[in-house]
Amino acid sequence: MEEKTSTFLIIASTVAALGGLLFGFDTAVISGTTPFIQPFFHLSDVGLGWTVSSLLIGCIIGVTLSGRPGDLFGRRNTLRAAALVFFVSAVGSSLAARLWVFIVFRFFGGIAVGTASMLSPMYISEISPGARRGALVSLNQLAIVIGILIAFFSNYLLVGVGPDNWRWMLAVMGLPALFFFISLLFVPESPRWLVQKGKTEEAFGILSRINGSEKASTELRDIESSVHNEERGTYREVFSKELRPLLMIGVLLAIFQQMTGINSIMYYAPIIFQKIGNGTSSALMQTIAVGAVNLTFTIVSLKLIDRWGRKPLLIVGAIGMVVSLAVIAIAFFTHHFEGYLILVFILIFIASFAVSIGPVAWVVIAEIFPNKLRSKAMSVAIVTLWTFTFLVSLTFPVILDRLGGGAAFAIFGVMCLLLLFYVIFRLPETKGKSLEELERILVSKRG
């Protein structure tokens, strides 16, 4: 029975995590197209930043708008709609002949990605038992990095197909979107959402398949008590004095995750490698190594997050990022690019990120907020994440061109150092507790 229950839970969580695959695939695909869309659309460095970042504006709006449909129609149905929108975006952007058409389709793709980035980890956190929630929510990050690796490999294979290679790179994004939509037809709705809608028997059936009947009864009572004793949450409560400390945890982790510079490397990896003297094909091949390391160490994090806890992983990862970014910055300042020095330390940085703030930020954001405020509070944290993704992605090509790689990576290194201090002195540990237990502990402590 245990094996069967585990399989059901893993399948449902994995399917939901495919929303992260859309995010990861798009992140990496656009990095492969940048050397080609820049001359095709006659883009300056600023124009390239705006074009790449247009998806991120859609992401911000998608996160903002997805909470309400997620509460009204369910996490699963809203994710289905997002998958279809992303498919249309992939096809439309690949066929665009004018820049404004390209940006419009990228923007709508961003709405879909933002919706998935909000609801996928929420769904997984709501369906997972406390003892396994960290690893299961981390599946979202694992799907992100799998999407990145597949897209890097796809870009490398398609780079030689001719002048329209960038169109094929973008069109391929439609395949994971269709796969995500079809897979969502075979997973259940969130039991917590079902209880909110009065569908208690259906919720009990799902919880029984996850935990067995005895544990399901206990968890169902906890969920019912939590749902029935709460009024509908408001944004006023999210920003209230009582919840502000928890909101700050989510917001600061979101900011730190992006201010490490991870998406600058993911979006602009080929340009970085070209800056240090590699050709386009060689640069795209090296991005595959970036994706492979990202995937490997995300799996390591998946194994350790519920065993070690959130804080130890963050501390180890932050130290690794500080050291690697310092070496990269010095190499750029001194123009010492011998051999594979930059590549090696970029890979160390990627490994450190992937084992720590990459998955852990999503896990903590999905688990620290009270049930009635979870969707709204998560939306604030994830809007912050996408806003800083947009700002960093928009400004990075300009900083890289005008100030140089040394300044860019030094700024990211300082942010990783601040992350290290924040985790050591301010971040609470959340491993191993149900969402209802965390609500009682954290809210009472902060209240």
Your description of this structure?
By secondary structure, the chain is an all-alpha fold. It has two domains: 2-187 and 230-446, Growth Hormone, Chain: A (Up-down Bundle); 196-229, no CATH class. 84% of the residues lie in helices and 0% in strands. It contains 20 helices and no strands. It has helices at residues 2-40, 45-73, 75-95, 99-127, 130-158, 165-171, 174-183, 191-196, 200-211, 213-228, 235-238, 244-259, 262-275, 280-308, 310-334, 341-354, 357-367, 374-402, 405-426, 435-446. The longest helix has 39 residues, at 2-40. The radius of gyration is 21 Å and the shape is globular. Residues 1-5 have low confidence and may be disordered.
Short description:
The protein is mainly α. The protein is built from 20 helices and no strands.
Q: Topology of this protein?
A:
Blueprint: H1 2-40, H2 45-73, H3 75-95, H4 99-127, H5 130-158, H6 165-171, H7 174-183, H8 191-196, H9 200-211, H10 213-228, H11 235-238, H12 244-259, H13 262-275, H14 280-308, H15 310-334, H16 341-354, H17 357-367, H18 374-402, H19 405-426, H20 435-446
